[in-house]
Amino acid sequence: MAPKPDARVPRHLAIVMDGNGRWAKQRLRPRTFGHHAGQKAVREAVEFCLRRGIESLTLFAFSSENWKRPPTEVSALMELFLKAIDREVDELHGNGVRIRFVGDLDAFAPELRKRMQGAMERTAGNTALNMNVAVNYGGRWDIANAARRAAEAVARGEFAASEIDETRLHGYTCLADQPPLDLFIRTGGEHRVSNFLLWQIAYAELYFTDTLWPDVDQACLAEAIDDYARRERRYGRTGEQVATTG
């Protein structure tokens, strides 16, 4: 019999990596400097998850709203994605990390989509950690996309519209094959979810820190996990019921 997972450690961790631009501004550097610096924090987060036995890590890298940013910044981010894929995929693959890009990928240039697909195919068999990189992603998009796909299945005669419930609709969302989201972290001092994982966040614990993303290290992440471990997750039950049934 497999050992029971440690309930004090989240199986699925999601992070809104906020504060790159402000970090750069504090140093009188362009915003793109902060995005480059944030890559170190990504590596810290991946190493942390591997050490703690966390199954899934979902990172909010580029939202569907981020296209509204200055064209020079968007262009620099696209170039950063390309270089990061080329530079990081070997090490991630060597560490058993499965890479997935989730979101509406059709909006990206063909070359970038090709690199993303290549990284996903190369690491598809890895099991040490699911690393989900949300790009051109929005929580509302995810739900609308799931509803559209379910409607298409109804049109094909696979099931009746009356059979669509939460469980069936969940199966069409981006991360349906992974553990439920346990802990949502946002760095950078903002206290909002910004259209990230709206469906998945329903029973997740929320943790906000003032630390800007490039400054996030394993000690910072450990503080978040320690805070999570102290919380009582009741899922609608009473505290007495949780104490009795676990």
Describe the structure.
This protein is α/β, with parallel strands linked by helices. It contains 8 helices and 6 strands; from the N terminus they run E-H-H-E-H-E-H-E-H-H-E-E-H-H. Helix 2 (about 30-50) runs parallel beside helix 3 and helix 3 packs parallel to helix 4 (about 110-125). It is globular and about 60 Å long. The mean pLDDT is about 90.
Biggest β-sheet strands, sense, barrel? 6 strands, parallel
The chain-level structural class is alpha/beta
Distance between the ends:
19 Å
* Percent range of helical residues: 40-55%
The stretches of 5 or more residues where confidence is low (pLDDT under 50) are none
Shape designation: globular
Give the count of helical stretches: 8
Summary of the model, kept short:
With about 250 residues, the chain is an alpha/beta fold. It has helices at about 20-25, 30-50, 70-95, 110-125, 140-155, 165-170, 220-230, 240-245, and strands at about 10-15, 55-65, 95-100, 130-135, 185, 205-210. The protein is built from eight helices and six strands; from the N terminus they run βααβαβαβααββαα.
Keywords:
six-stranded parallel beta sheet, 6 strands, 246 residues
Question: Secondary structure elements and their pairing?
Answer:
Layout: E1 12-16, H1 20-26, H2 31-52, E2 56-63, H3 71-94, E3 97-102, H4 110-123, E4 129-137, H5 139-155, H6 166-170, E5 183-186, E6 205-208, H7 218-229, H8 239-245
Parallel strand pairs: 1-2, 1-5, 2-4, 3-4, 5-6
